[in-house]
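Fig. S4 source data, part A: sequence.
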Amino acid sequence: KGNKVLLIEKNHRTGMETSSRNSEVIHAGLYYPADSLKAKLCIEGNHIIYNELNPRKTGVDWIKCGKWIVAQTDFEDAILEDMYYKAKHDLGLPVELIPSHKSQWLEPAITVERSILSSPTSGIIDSHSLMEYLTTVIEENDGEVVIGTKVIDVNYNNAVYTLLCQETVNESNEKVEINVENVINASGLYADQVANMLLPPERHVKQYYARGNYFKLTQSTPPVRRLIYPVPPKNGKSLGTHLTIDLDNQIRFGPDLEYIDSPDDYTVNLANLKPAYEAIRRYYPHIQPEDLEAAYSGIR
């Protein structure tokens, strides 16, 4: 006999935060150490999406469009060679190094000064369709998704967790207690707050928040058929401001990175538009700053 699963969601629908405020990229696993759990799960998840989530059967929309990481200097070219060797030989990924002169035939709108690391197993996915599918899977397996309900306290006694929950959808503020045997803290940006409900003060944890701003085009520009990424910055805190396409082949750029105090602040920082433009024009020179406008932001 299996356990009954109860998913508690504080918002009025699932996936309103990190799950949807991102680039919606299906990553191939290029960036992580070969022996890391991140690499293992990224590659495993990539295979599951392409092999098991048939769009016609599941309603999950995705495209295996591929990705380029483009090098513009000799230094970046050396980094790409290291990434290629690790991906090809340590991770067994079907990557390819492409010389710059071939880019004009494959992606004429993209400027490449040195070389390209091509990742054919990268892609894009409609995150909302994926979340709808996962919600359906839970409910079809006798689980329950409770929306508009926020956990405000957790107590543990005699092998039972008592969750104190409050309604958030309307103004009734009704509270209810739920007793469960196991708790999985999948609270994302608020996971530290939920953990601290149980931990003694000396073991309290604190998360720090980095917002990424996204920008979109205000006018038509030369089309691009795949994802375009710069070589990752040396600080290792992001993958750089990249070009992504959605399922309608609309282009957007981002994210950048700036530390903020609140996990609720999704205001797009327009002061970051010019630095984003400077980063974008290195590989996509067909735009001016006035061609970009705020799209949305995500927090990690």
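Fig. S4 source data, part B ends here. The chain is about 25% helix and 25% strand.
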